[in-house]
Design goal:
With about 240 residues, this protein is α+β, with helices and mostly antiparallel strands. Helices cover about 40% and strands about 15% of the residues. A 5-stranded antiparallel β-sheet has the order 6-3-5-4-8. The chain is globular and about 50 Å long.
Length: about 240
Amino acid sequence: MGFTIGGSRGIRDIRSARPGSRRRGRAAERAVTAVAEYTGLWGWAVVPGAGAVAEGACPCGGAECASPGVHPLPLAAEIPAGATLDEVGEAWAAVAGAAVLLPVGRSFDVLDVAADAGRRALVRMERMGLPLGPVTAGPDGRCQFFVAPGAASALPELLYRMGWDDADLDLHCPGPDEYIAAPPSEFAGLGPVDWLRPPSLDTAAAPPEARLLLGTLAYSCHRSAAQGCAGDRTS
């Protein structure tokens, strides 16, 4: 299944525009296409976000913004799951340049870990043949593993059962009313968010239960922390 944006006249207009306008036009097309895939193919709602930031200042204007560049735009309407390409194009035209944010706690939760630990865990999971959902990597040095909803509330109990409750793990699970940036967004002015494992029809609709991935992620986080401590002692 694919999407076609614009007709021949629109394409001619883009080609005849100035270079800066063409770049902005291509960026807008990529955003609309991505959002339409999220809503129409994967069944996810999308929220227009505050976008990239410069020198730590969020476009919202808040001097002490808790989530610079990674929170909904004020008054911007959520684009619901199931929205068509035309509906997305019309909605996104009103928020040009916005970041693409996905609400956590509805269709999926995420397990958020440091990128080094996440990449090592991902390789191990693939070798083990574990079920995997989408995985993102951001320029902030973090990875997000998509898992079934309910992980945020179950995480403390799951870690306890696996014997990881006393470990100092850099492993987090954002709760409801929180958001993650999704491709092709720029994350907080640092660079683009990418897919380590892009969504598919199977993984988007039914991401794995957190318990299936948590042991490997916790081990990888613990190992990274141990290696970091060893490096500090020898430096």
